[in-house]
User: Fold this.
Amino acid sequence: MLTINNGIMLAITNKGGIMIPLVIAEEEQNLTICKLVADQKTKRHLENLGILQGATIEIIAKNKGNIILKVKDGRLAIGEDLAQKIFIQGENKWKSI
Assistant:
């Protein structure tokens, strides 16, 4: 993993793609979860909510650090601190850092 501006982490996958934390992805993109960087308890909680490696999600909205996601057939709101632990790949429309 690399650390870049403002302490935001990026990682290069074994297939040469780039994973970014969910917090810097733009809205209205189909995103694939590549990695959860959290303790076992948090990973288990996220997996129970449908946020697991290989799952497809979409950011519906961002508001004051909170992110509303479309996960399967439902919606889920998470905070910025948790969104920094979810690494995704998507349509490469990342916001400027």
Summary: The helical segments are 40-48, 80-83. Strands lie at 2-3, 9-12, 18-21, 30-36, 56-63, 66-71, 74-78, 86-89. The longest helix spans residues 40-48.
